[in-house]
Amino acid sequence: MNPVLIILPQGASIGGVTTWAITLANALAAERRPVTLLIHGAIDHHASVPLKLHPGVNAIHRPDLPSPQSLAGQLKSVTNAYRDAINAISLKGLGPVLLIPTRDADCFGVCAALAQDDPARVRLVGWRHSPMPYEREIFRVFGPSMSRIIGVSQWLCDHMRRSLPTCADRVACVPNAVDVPLSRPRRRPVNGRPIELVYTGRLDDAIKRTGALPLLSDALTQMAIAHRLTIIGDGPALSTLQAAAASRASLRLLGVHSPHDVAAALAASDVFVLPSRIEGLSLSALEAMAQGCALAITRTPSGASDLIGDGSCGCLADASPEDDDATTAQALTCAVQSLLARDLDAAGRAAHARALAHFSIKTMVRHAIEELGRAATDPPITAQAAMPIIFHDRTRPASVPADAENRLARILHSLAGRAILIHGCGAHTRALMSTILSSPARIVGFADDDSAARSPDPLRFPVVLPAQAQATGATDVVLSSYLHEEVLWARRDVYERQGISVHRLYAADHPIKQPA
User: Fold this and answer.
1) Which range marks the domain in which residue 270 is found?
2) 423-434, pLDDT tens digit by residue?
3) Same domain, yes or no, for 166 and 212?
4) In what side-by-side order are the strands of the sheet with 57-62?
5) 86 φ, ψ (degrees, to nearest 5)
6) What number is the average pLDDT over the span 382-393?
């Protein structure tokens, strides 16, 4: 098999993609396949996971190498680092290097350029993990340069075949995988004890919608369903959930746990609950299935139906990405009720059996080797008409549509004299600061879901969390993001509950118009 180079452009930061990369690298090494993991330096305000790598994994640690997106388009150091790694691997004479970028659009851009420059020696393989708009745009732009386009769920693969029709024959599904014990851990009989519910993962409201979890516990309590809901994880919603747990005997918050302790907690639980607005193919859910938990999960785009299968191992909660916490909690309550009306232990056994059959590491690595083999042996992709764009350019990110200024100016002009909070402190907002500052609206500050976000104009404007918006005196919020607008719009109720009107710039189907 040809050598594989997997890149972690944000270091070994905690997250599903990092876990996936380590799992794939270790699995390939266990099969005696040549694999290298190139690890950038850690990014600020993100914890890193300990790297437990198979001895056969060649790890290149580059703590001096920042994330590509932080370099504002000045990518020479990144290009040189990747080229050096390719050259070192190529010396072994094993054929084209299969280059797998992750997470960062400019990481994909550099890899695409390297594959175009030397298609006989470098092949680009894209691995899509999520239906999030950011990943959607990465694959829209760089998909035509990819020798193979892998999705972790059937939904993602179907979507990419439709959105990239000229590349449809290169799209394939290789689901995520976890360690699955050969037998399901035994539980105490359900009769006569509280039902054990569990959530593991990031604690946030924007994507994971974890604010629904205390409300789920409340609903079950009101229905006299004895239960305990254990929440394991960390994130921006931690303090809110801590306050909720302090007043609820049925709610237990455990914080960050080691993988071993997470597995033990899952093995002692009956039902895994997942209130997310959007998921790829949830590794947390797969870990729960591997330990024999039945599933009560929201009907998210992408992987939910892949997890549930024929329904024998769990229930889909009928909550849309736009639904608020209360509606989502009610949908999850119905899903839990449905499971309790069935044989809960049988559902857990079915979940374990499905994980063993479809989501084991052995199954994943077999499919991965097949697809990587095709990437190496198929004819190289011919050069595209233009070099890949740089997403995070110093002056104009590619994620800012060409008509963004006009759209923002029109909305701010219509809000002249009102007190405006701009949601978002990222590249989109920074690129539009001249429009924001010259508007007739009265800007009172910026809001961001990240408590560590920095104001684009710190001397004049503060940054607040969305839940604190009312304290600024804002009458209106303008969402400043193209790639994440759909998600932000779906949770606008955090502002509307405070009596603040919310405005968006883009329609959901608005295509990016690249600047000339």
Assistant:
1) 195-355
2) 999 889 988 999
3) no
4) 57-62, 35-40, 4-8, 97-100, 122-128, 148-151, 171-173
5) -65, -45
6) 59
